[in-house]
């Protein structure tokens, strides 16, 4: 395998690993999101239960407080106006009887803690959602890069297959040409041998003819040797 093709495969493997890791992170954040929703619902249910229980306790306390006060007012005679004014001036009525439940000062300490916890959970959830969106964007970008690299790899594989076919055809053509060249060389060698033989015969014939002319020049100079 060529070096550049191996590098492309390594990049694809790296993107696959990044995609798998990103999906694992998304699964973790999805699980955290579900747990956060469950915690928020549990907090809301607990707040509702505590509010209902507190209201019931206040109603019960108000009923218990109003019953002995009304009975005492029926048993005791009404004081004179002056004494009543002096009593109200000296000692306020608010100190003699407890406040009704609707005038009590609320103590939302635990509720404030729950609200603060819910706000913290909401902030963590928003941060988590932001991170999830960023990871989704990175995952989409990685998938686009993987698709682009896959397309390039497929194109390069197709080019390699075409080049391999051309190389095979060229090799076959070269083999055929080598065979043709070898045959031509054999024919050329045979022709050269035949030419050399004929040249030798021609030279021999010329020498024989010249010898005959020299031998018979005094009798018949125009007749060549047989």
From TrEMBL:
Family of the protein in this entry: Belongs to the ATG16 family.
Region (Disordered) location: 50-109
Listed name of the protein: Autophagy-related protein 16 domain-containing protein
InterPro entries: Autophagy-rel_prot_16_dom
Record's keyword annotation contains Zinc: no
Lineage of origin: Eukaryota, Fungi, Fungi incertae sedis, Blastocladiomycota, Blastocladiomycetes
Species of provenance: Catenaria anguillulae PL171
A Pfam family the protein falls into: ATG16
Residue ranges of coiled coil: 118-201
Domain annotation Autophagy-related protein: ranges: 8-202
UniProt keyword terms in alphabetical order: Coiled coil
Polar residues biased stretches: 67-76, 85-95
Leader sequence residues: none
Low complexity compositional bias, start-end: 50-59
């Amino acid at each position: 395998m060529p070096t550049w093709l191996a590098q492309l495969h390594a990049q694809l493997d790296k993107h696959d690993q990044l995609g798998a890791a990103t999906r694992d992170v998304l699964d973790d954040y999805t699980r955290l999101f579900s747990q956060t929703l469950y915690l928020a619902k549990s907090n809301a249910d607990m707040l509702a239960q505590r509010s209902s229980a507190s209201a019931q306790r206040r109603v019960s306390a108000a009923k218990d407080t109003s019953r002995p006060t009304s009975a005492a007012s029926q048993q005791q005679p009404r004081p004179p106006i002056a004494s009543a004014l002096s009593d109200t001036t000296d000692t306020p009525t608010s100190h003699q009887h407890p406040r009704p439940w609707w005038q009590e000062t609320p103590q939302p300490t635990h509720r404030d803690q729950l609200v603060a916890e819910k706000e913290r959970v909401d902030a963590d959830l928003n941060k988590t959602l932001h991170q999830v969106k960023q990871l989704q964007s990175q995952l989409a970008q990685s998938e686009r890069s993987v698709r682009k690299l896959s397309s390039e790899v497929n194109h390069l594989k197709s080019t390699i297959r075409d080049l391999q076919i051309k190389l095979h055809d060229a090799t076959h053509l070269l083999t055929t040409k080598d065979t043709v060249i070898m045959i031509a060389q054999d024919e050329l060698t045979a022709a050269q041998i035949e030419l050399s033989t004929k040249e030798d015969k021609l030279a021999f014939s010329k020498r024989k003819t010249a010898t005959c002319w020299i031998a018979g020049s005094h009798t018949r100079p125009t007749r060549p040797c047989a």
